[in-house]
């Protein structure tokens, strides 16, 4: 199964880990999936963290700037560093903590109830790249300090660097995705002699 390396892999189980996965093959090839502000816009929409995710293609409201793209990459790396610290692989850096906290505290508008023609409707706030990054930061705080922190895993495929939350019953999940890395591992096993 061929995988487009620039497509966003939404297989981490949490928005923060999916966001960390926007840099693929860390340390070897460093495949940057957030290359342009449009990529950040697309991630926000595809992740479901943007109101535009449910909008038609002609009414996409989320747009990101070059500055927000740079901010997004910095937040991503801070979350990655703190995830590695949570896994005991690196010391936590106070600069990463401060950056995640700064984004988590970013003011965002909340959804509201609206009464129209006697019926209740949900009024969604306008989506912004900053609101998406704030949601990612808040999810990161929740993940890294909550019970799922102990279930964060690395994909065992040596060519993959994606992280995921292992929610399997046995807590023995090995691959980020059976359809991606698990299938490749099985093919290698089948092809190996003896």
Automatic annotation (TrEMBL):
Domain Zinc finger CGNR: 152-191
Membrane-traversing stretches: none
Organism: Kribbella qitaiheensis
Protein name: 4-hydroxybenzoyl-CoA reductase
